[in-house]
Write a structure and sequence with these properties.
heterodimer; A: alpha+beta; Ubiquitin-like (UB roll); 5 helices; globular; B: alpha+beta; Uridine Diphospho-n-acetylenolpyruvylglucosamine Reductase, domain 2; Enolase-like, domain 1; 3 domains; five-stranded antiparallel sheet; four-stranded antiparallel sheet
Chain lengths: ~160, ~280
């Protein structure tokens, strides 16, 4: 069977028929070509697949595309506006918040959710807010700096 | 990692969910999917039909009335952790929900899905047992409630019947003079509790008039510890340590990360700390 879904992805309406077992991350990557959300652990631990669903950070490897019917989804591809990087993207660039970059889209969307809840978090709050996102190369120090950079720019 | 194929049905009401359950043998209810989807990916669960109840607003929300708090089964951990109602009337439940997983998991996971899954490393079950909460279930033949202490039956096994849907939990609000705390020794990778201790004490005139301690992660189901020796004492550190050392598990669970004996030991330590934290909040 297939399920008809209608949703908004990065501000654009999308309509599709998906298999019930189609995970949101596969739908985004393979059906829509939005490969920013990465597939890491596939067990809801690493956070590389994090996207925003109706403004909430969620792990798209643990959500069915069918569950996103009617939702508004934001991926890393939807953050830059008119070619200008989002302050978080700028922060990760300026503060060297990445090395291989695999975790970065998820990190940035989790940080985006954190800043929406708490516009000026301290270091501890940033680390707690990014607990669901794992980086295996750079370490977290510069990621925290990048989020602070963005928080200042966005305030 | 894909789940095995299944048919998907979306329920528009509790009644529709109940009839879909009746029509589809071995169907599973899905709320946020944060217990079920991982199980399905690992083929530990292969339901032929998944009934999505995630949109049933009638099962969402937190309220307080007549000295008890009511939490709808589809309320997310994020909403429980941030609830003003719970902060005022039952903060220990919000505290435990805030310890679950991470922000993304708390945004999707629900209290009903969590306790219906009944993972021994879950943070919510020991708190519900401590509070003397009741779990409310609905089936085509009516509604019933079961005490949290009887709800959790074994590893991943609960009292929910095949034709039933978990609608809400109800817990007594914490009264004046009562402090409660949930402390967790967290698995560093999975975020589940290796051991989680929920404690409450009531203090009147400097003396303890009631105390409870329930430890999760040690056995297949939450383990209640007899801490009645604390009643009448001034809750000294020594009295608390002695009471918490009464933790006893006939058949402790062990895995590659933590043996059964180790879990019992950590349970005593965290039980002691949780009781001390509850005492400090009561006064």
């Amino acid at each position: 069977m297939t399920v008809s879904i209608q949703l908004e992805v990065n501000g654009k309406p999308v309509q599709a028929a998906v298999e019930p077992r189609r995970l949101l991350v596969h739908f985004l990557r393979e059906d829509l070509g939005l490969t920013g959300a990465n597939i890491g652990c596939e067990t809801s631990l690493c956070g590389a697949c994090t996207v925003l669903v109706d403004g909430n950070a969620v792990k798209s490897c643990t959500m069915l595309a069918a569950q996103a019917d009617g939702a508004s989804v934001t991926t890393i591809e939807g953050l830059a506006q008119n070619g200008d990087l989002h302050p978080l993207q700028e922060g990760f660039w300026e503060k060297h918040g990445l090395q291989c970059g695999y975790c970065t889209p998820g990190m940035i969307l989790s940080a985006n959710y954190l800043l929406a809840q708490n516009p000026s978090p301290n270091d501890e709050e940033i680390r707690e807010g990014l607990k669901g996102n794992i980086c295996r190369c750079t370490g977290y120090h510069n990621i925290v700096e990048a989020v602070k950079y963005a928080a200042e720019r966005m305030s | 990692m894909y789940p095995a194929q299944f048919d998907y049905r979306r329920a528009g009401s509790v009644d529709e969910a109940l009839s879909l359950l009746q029509e589809n043998e071995d169907a599973k209810l899905m709320a946020g999917g944060h217990s079920l989807i991982p199980m399905m990916k690992l083929r530990l669960a292969q339901p032929p039909v998944v009934i999505d109840i995630g949109r049933l607003n009638e099962l969402k929300g937190i309220s307080e009335a007549g000295g008890s708090v009511r939490v709808g089964s589809l309320t997310t951990h994020a909403d429980i952790a941030a609830s003003d109602v719970l902060a005022a009337h039952c903060p220990v439940l919000a505290e435990a929900a805030g310890h679950i997983g991470d922000a993304q998991v708390r945004n999707r996971g629900t209290i009903g899905g969590n306790i219906a899954h009944a993972d021994p490393g879950s943070d919510i079950p020991p708190v519900l047992v401590l509070l003397g909460a009741s779990v409310h279930l609905q089936s085509p033949s009516g509604t019933r409630s079961v005490a949290a202490g009887d709800f959790f039956q074994d590893l991943l096994m609960t009292d929910v019947g095949e034709d039933e849907i978990l609608t809400h939990v109800e817990a007594p609000a914490l009264g004046a003079g009562t402090g409660a705390a949930y402390l967790k020794f967290e698995h560093p990778a999975s975020g589940y509790a290796v051991v989680g201790a929920a404690a409450a004490v009531t203090v009147q005139g400097g003396r303890c008039t009631g105390a409870g301690l329930v430890v999760g992660g040690v056995s297949a189901t939450p383990t209640a510890v007899d801490v009645s020796s604390l009643v009448g004492t001034d809750l000294s550190d020594d009295a608390i340590a002695a009471a918490a050392s009464g933790l006893d598990a006939e058949d402790p669970i062990g895995d590659i990360f933590a043996s059964g004996d180790y879990r019992v030991h950590v349970g005593k330590v965290y039980g002691k700390r949780a009781l001390a934290a509850a005492r400090d909040r009561a006064s």
